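Exercise 7. Given the components listed, write out the predicted structure of the assembled complex. Treat all entries as one system.
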Amino acid sequence: MREISTRAPLGSAPQTMDTAVIKARHVEDVVVGEEIIRHRLLSRVIHWTVAVSMLLSLITGLPIWTPIFGWMAFLVGGLAVCRWLHPWLGIVFFASSVWMFAHWAKGMGMSKDDWAWIGPRLFLYMKAETDDSQVGKYNGGQKIFFFTSALAALALVASGVVLWFPLSFGQEPRGVSLILHDVTFILFTASVIGHIYLGTASEPGTFTAMTRGVVSKKWARFHHPRWYREVTGEKAQRF
Amino acid sequence: MPSQHLEIRRSSASLRGGETGIRQLPTVSKYIDTSTCIGCKACEVACQEWNDLKTQHTQQTGTYQTMPALAADYWNLIRFDEREYDGGVTWLMRKDQCMHCADPGCLAACPAPGAIVQYSNGIVDVNPDQCIGCGLCATGCPFDVPKFHENTGKMAKCTLCVDRVEVSLEPACIKACPTGCLQFGTKQDMVALGEHRVAQLKANGFAHATLYDPPGVKGTGVVTVLAHGDHPEWYGLPRDPQVPWSVSFSKRFLRPLGLIAIFGTIAGVFGHFLRHGPKKPPDSDTDTQPSTRA
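Answer.
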């Protein structure tokens, strides 16, 4: 077996290592061989901080919401632990969501075409009946999910603080928070289920964008043609 | 402390409820006559002693009230207020405590299974073993009764001396009352007593006297005679107490709807996967369009 020098100069990786991943530590939107770096390390760390804190919040929140999910409480040591842990996980979720918003907001400008995703465009996309040739790094659905999750984080933290310290607030804000926390988490959880599905089973090749940080050229040309053209400098393809 | 002898009629965060036994226990109730209360606070002392609650320094707030409000270790408080009435001033004293509602908002709001129970005799009790101290019961309570105890991290309130009642003793506060303005018995008897007293008060010139047994919470396990029944707020009582709409809406509507939405989405994505399968780039290098259009 070839020995890997531990004294290799910074930035130069031994050949046995994944060069795309090493490059993806610092840069994105660049081609490495047959792959394109979609999310650099920082983007992925932020995403997974949001995702893990959201899922843990869900696991500790659902048993408080309904006894049907009471079994989830035992994963963390009981309902009393959920009551203690859930707000802190919520704080991590909110803080990382703010970070995520600041990190990605620049690329999330909504075009007229993107707004059309609120409506039949979404359903046509799910049936693969849309013309996606002008889709950049993010399509309208992804942008809307981005803003949805930011709004959800805001609504969840605002109502969550009231539910955390109910006795410091009046009856009215407590009642409103109860409803707002419920409605927001239900809609957000449903959206996240869709998000996970689209990122895994529904569109193969997507999940690596959030693990190794890279996607194949073929994937990029298919799902995000305008981004592909911008990154590779290739001319628009014949349709 | 949960009763070892009483059957549970209803329990918080449980999917099923209802009595199962053959024993029919009458619903019990306290009777409070505010018009004959002299404000001696014997009931407050008796409550602290029987329930082994820490003695407190009373607070002088310029009234004949010992404490500003009910607290996690002060479950029985004679509220005092004075109002102008009939060209003079009238003193109003009411024993404040858990009302033991027939339809308890605290129990409806509580997310911890078995943390709040209603026994078959109508007593509503907090079970500290199951309580997680979230405070949602306080949101559900239209009388602002359950309080968070900083030392235990649990909610606490009047138990209606369930430990005494289950062995056929009257609650400590009733036992201590020197004027007879506090009575204890079946709900039926206490309502009859209250109606009798209201008729007396009406005959004595208190035309608006009523027995406070609010229907919004399907009646309470504490019925209160009010000489000025047209002004329950003078006694610190809500005019028409209800389980807050937010609690009922959340539990009865949003919860089933949310379950349908969440499981529906999971079923939806499975269905989509079976119907449409994964969306893969076409094999041809030049074709960038999804070519599934029929």
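Discussion: Chain B has two domains: 8-243, 252-294. The radius of gyration of chain B is 26 Å.
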